[in-house]
Amino acid sequence: MQLKQVIIAHKANHPQSKAWAEKCAKQLEARQCKVLMGPSGFKDNPYPVFLASASEKIDLAIVLGGDGTILAAARYLAQQDIPILAVNVGGHLGFLTEPFEIFQDTETVWERLQSDHYAVQQRMMLTARIYEGDKINPQAVSEAFYALNEMCVKPASIDRMPTSILEIEVDGEVVDQYQGDGLLVATPTGSTCYTASANGPIIHPGMEAIAVTPICPLSLSSRPIVIPPASLVSIWPLGDYELNTKLWMDGALATSIWPGQWVGVTKAEKFAQFIILRESYSFYQTLQEKLQWAGARIHYDGNRHN
């Protein structure tokens, strides 16, 4: 990998993350690399400025923070084919990040990157648009929104907790109507986040699939489903006359859904690309560590395979 122009995004209002970003910037600039650096957070979105300011191809994005910081980066950088080195500096679970211990010797990290001593993991993303008109000739009335974890359609109100009635179609065929708190359309990456909290399936990130999970449905028969990645998921809000229904991408507000409009969700054309520095990576070990899987209450070691 060449390191001629690099993005460094650090978690906003986190001194340790900012300090490491500044250290990385100095080291890379000493290697004749142009660095674009800035904070990323709820009120800080540096990526449009980064992309507009780039004088040449961006070789790498170093993102220092937690999973929320990484999700924001992926939504902008995946469509530009920019690989992401995500490091857990100031995060909590860190599902998507490399351990901070591996990153501490930063000079060695730069040597490894320049000598191609790393792996790249591709993760599927979703894209969504708002449509209106008839089903045969729908008209897109919004920009394309992207998510690495999930698209969520749910009501939002300041002074009450409304429920929603959502009809879902897959490839033009009505599947079900859900009455409840909303609906999640998730990638395998997102299956361990909000979808897992809603009792959805956990899917290995090496797979390409879409998980559709109702949030707190008012029917015991409403179940999560896993569908092929090429599916078109259409979500129709029913009976919404007060503009309570919103589309969310990775927990961030995308847009409102007006009466008569619906959401179309598909697999995005581009994948998020993550740099892996660990010598061995195990999704199952990550599940055990991050979700604190403890196994049976009575631990049994007998008759193990050698």
TrEMBL record:
Catalytic reaction annotation: NAD(+) + ATP = ADP + NADP(+) + H(+)
Cofactor or coenzyme needed: a divalent metal cation
Cellular component aspect of the GO annotation: cytoplasm
Subcellular location: Cytoplasm
Leading EC class: transferase
Presence of the UniProt keyword Repeat in the record: no
Cited SUPFAM superfamilies: NAD kinase/diacylglycerol kinase-like
UniProt-annotated catalytic positions: D67
GO BP terms in the entry: NAD+ metabolic process; NADP+ biosynthetic process
GO molecular function, one term: metal ion binding
Keyword Membrane tagged: no
Sequence positions that bind NAD(+): D67, G68, N149, E150, R160, D181, T192, C193, Y194, T195, A196, S197
EC number: 2.7.1.23
Segments passing through the bilayer: none
Record-linked Pfam families: NAD_kinase, NAD_kinase_C
Annotated InterPro entries: ATP-NAD_kinase_N (IPR017438), ATP-NAD_kinase_PpnK-typ_C (IPR017437), NAD/diacylglycerol_kinase_sf (IPR016064), NADK (IPR002504)
Keywords for this protein: ATP-binding, Cytoplasm, Kinase, NAD, NADP, Nucleotide-binding, Transferase
Role: Involved in the regulation of the intracellular balance of NAD and NADP, and is a key enzyme in the biosynthesis of NADP. Catalyzes specifically the phosphorylation on 2'-hydroxyl of the adenosine moiety of NAD to yield NADP.
Family per similarity comment: Belongs to the NAD kinase family.
Name recorded for this polypeptide: NAD kinase
Species per Swiss-Prot/TrEMBL record: Microcystis aeruginosa (strain NIES-843 / IAM M-2473)
